[in-house]
Specification:
462 residues; 4-stranded mixed beta sheet; 6-stranded antiparallel beta sheet; 15 helices; 2 domains; 28% helix; 20 strands; alpha+beta
């Protein structure tokens, strides 16, 4: 890699080559996983390049292609799986500057890939009381392009399912990695080619996302003496078609008391909770339903006058639950499980209960038209072997694990080749220069996902 | 009943006593049912009273109470079960004049009971791009109070379930029928006391309803050679959490060709269809999904320039399907069935298929958090005995029938006493003067719903 020659060719485009800064911006929240921490800690790019528009992206990709320099795209680096970490070095392509909100219409927003989710919502709310359908718990820091390329759902999935479901992304502009990069517009089923592909097969330069009505969501926490009651309540609430919520998150005792420090005065050690976001106009119905289900509202933001210092509900949920636990107890890590419908409640009790070191944390979602839940169970980490054993037992019991301790698309996902993404990569990145090492199907087409081993990208061999 | 004395007491309140007009306004669309047509044709009130505000409602009720005159409330008379027909004569209380839209806020509208659904939406759309969550196919003529008191769901139920689900009505003001009528505000679980009670236990004088984001819904019709494929497609579309629709209505051949006259040029005799309303920003995804499912879009309002004379999609659906069939073939009537989740598709095929005189018509909805469908099968009527036999066979096969050939709450509903409504009626209408004959539990507490007989209100005996 002739980085110096590349730099000369990128004259006029913003570049950062201070090694300390480059290393810092070559990382994401991979350290949530002790496994990824060990594997990826040394990873760094050679150069951060920050194009300000699509024309500059095209220039960067053409130059990198001609020099054979890998390019790993990055939004704000809030992923947890090393999605944006440059395993083969080279250029980290920061899309953070391309953060304009370009157009807002009923049900739609068009923006640059680097726009921060909360900033998009501020613009769409001010324009027409609209907001994004889905966001991760890193709402205030994550970029929309990074969310699409590296995320899968989150807050709002209780209403709209996942990011890869038809309709949850409207359109993407994508630049290919070729001598003469092409700009493609993708919509409909073509979106699947690049959503959740970690930027391995094209660089997103514009997104068009669906919007929903924006409300001043009210954070409410409901307490239960038994976690099974909390889970059952969460499931029943999610099945209330007329009660508009945006988040339904059961967390088992003692995690709320131990880790939700700023809410501690509302909690006690034995309390399991369900963290909710409720539309203001649904509050009466929510309260009546909760009373009927014998849930105890222990926190209702609409009734608590002094909320200073309290994080929003979504920062107690999804991967922020893990973050809060990690801050208190660095030996905590997590898994991501699906409890398939219609057996979700039984499976939670049975499978989470197999492991003394697991504390249940659920996220209710719509999934293929049904209400079910994902789990982000907190796991007290001992060894990688034990973690793998836990993963295996979840899967043996019928709960797929989306393993957050793997940096490849396949191992963190469906454990099989995504033929559509692979075919698209052949066209869009024929030299395999985009985010190398993340798509096993590309690196090692004959890889056996049932080997029980972890894929090791050759670029990481030391 | 001393109607003349009552009239004097109502001085200053708008009254109509022309017998022809009174009879006309004592009717609803009960004639969809040949059974109700026979039973109720002679029903008429003595007087139409049209209060202009709540104070006048209170005056009317007090006066009627003191004279022992029955009061049957009425919106615009678009019901199908004689809900608003005064079985014991007396006053028909028209709430049509109380049609003001009083307040609009994010997620909420407050209005009088007589406000027409389409008029409410015109106001809320102009105010803040919002619209009602649910409406019947009689959107352009039905009143909100009548919908709440006599309806159960409709267009939009695919997103929000039914009217009686928590959250689909926010608040009601209700006037009781006593010497000194009380004005009550009901919310939360108390709403159940008066929703879908046909006005038997209080007169609604104000409603507060939840709103959703308003869109310029696009009418699309998808065609299939086999009805089972249409039903399967409708179910799969309903399970697409990211594709925002408001209506998913499969109708079996040859009904579309025979009865959707204005759309006939898009149809042919053997074509079964799925009538949809799709949000504009979901169209790309809808089309991609429909292609994948091998559905053929035979009508897309966004691509048809001359739509003059074409009714909106919702006027092909719910009970407008029946109406269109009736207009062509007066021997057609219908039933209302539920195909319980998760066996809805099998049940449709099995149960509708039992009867040569039944043509399938489904409406996909959310029901307790699941996607399933109601049926409004078109039935070629021969005799009441045969109709009862069909009802029995539906129920024997596990498909509850909400019988539209009965004028009582119980027989058209759950075939059991609604203890909450009955208890509330004891307080709110101690003399049983509100819409007599509609609540069996009141008229005949010992009634045996399993007798197989039809309840005959004594006031209808001749």
């Amino acid at each position: 890699m002739d980085i110096e020659a590349l730099k000369r060719e990128l004259d006029g485009i913003r570049i950062e080559d201070n090694p300390a800064i480059v290393q810092q911006r070559s990382r994401d929240f991979y350290w949530y996983s002790p496994v990824l921490k060990r594997q990826l800690e040394h990873v760094t790019g050679d150069l951060i390049v920050s194009p300000k528009d699509e024309a500059e992206v095209v220039r960067v990709l053409a130059a990198c292609f001609s020099h054979g320099v890998p390019v790993t795209p990055r939004g704000t680096g809030t992923g947890n799986y090393g999605q944006a970490m440059p395993l083969s070095g080279g250029v980290v392509l920061s899309l953070a500057e391309m953060n304009e909100v370009r157009a807002i219409a009923p049900g739609r927003v068009v923006c640059g890939p680097g726009a921060i989710l909360a900033d998009i919502d501020r613009a769409t709310k001010a324009h027409s009381a609209q907001e994004l359908r889905l966001h991760p718990s890193t709402y205030n820091t994550a970029s929309i392009g990074g969310f699409i390329a590296g995320g899968s759902g989150g807050v709002g999935s209780i209403n709209f399912g996942g990011l890869r479901d038809f309709g949850n992304v409207i359109r993407l502009r994508v630049v290919t990695m070729e001598a003469d990069p092409k700009v493609l517009e993708l919509s409909g089923e073509d979106l699947h080619k690049v959503t959740h592909a970690y930027g391995t097969n094209g660089i997103i330069t514009e997104v068009e996302m669906p919007l929903a009505a924006a409300y001043d969501w009210v954070d409410v926490i409901v307490g239960f003496d038994r976690f099974s009651d909390a889970a059952r309540y969460g499931n029943a609430l999610a099945c209330q078609d007329g009660i508009l919520t945006k988040l339904i998150t059961p967390v088992a005792a003692p995690a709320p008391w131990l880790y939700f420090k700023r809410h501690q005065k509302f909690l006690h050690e034995g309390l399991s909770v369900v963290v909710c976001m409720v539309a203001p106009h649904a509050l009466d119905a929510f309260r009546a339903f909760t009373r009927r289900e014998r849930g105890k509202v222990i926190f209702d933001a609409s009734l608590v006058e002094d909320r200073k210092g309290l994080p929003p509900a979504y920062e107690l949920a999804w991967n922020h639950t893990t973050l809060r636990a990690l801050r208190v107890d660095p030996s905590i890590t997590y898994l991501q499980s699906l409890y398939p419908f219609p057996h979700q409640l039984d499976l939670v009790e049975r499978v989470d209960g197999l492991f003394p070191e697991v504390t249940s944390h659920l996220e209710f979602v719509r999934f293929d038209g049904n209400i079910t839940c994902f789990g982000l169970p907190l796991v007290k980490f001992t060894t990688e072997q034990r973690l793998d054993e836990i993963v295996r037992l979840y899967e043996d019991n019928g709960c797929p694990i989306f393993n957050p301790h793997r940096y490849t698309l396949e191992e963190g996902g469906m454990k099989q080749t995504d033929e559509i993404q692979l075919a698209f990569k052949r066209r869009a990145d024929p030299q395999g220069l985009l985010n190398p090492g993340k798509m096993i199907a590309w690196e090692n087409p004959g890889y056996d996902y049932r080997s029980g081993k972890t894929f090791l990208f050759k670029g990481l061999e030391r």
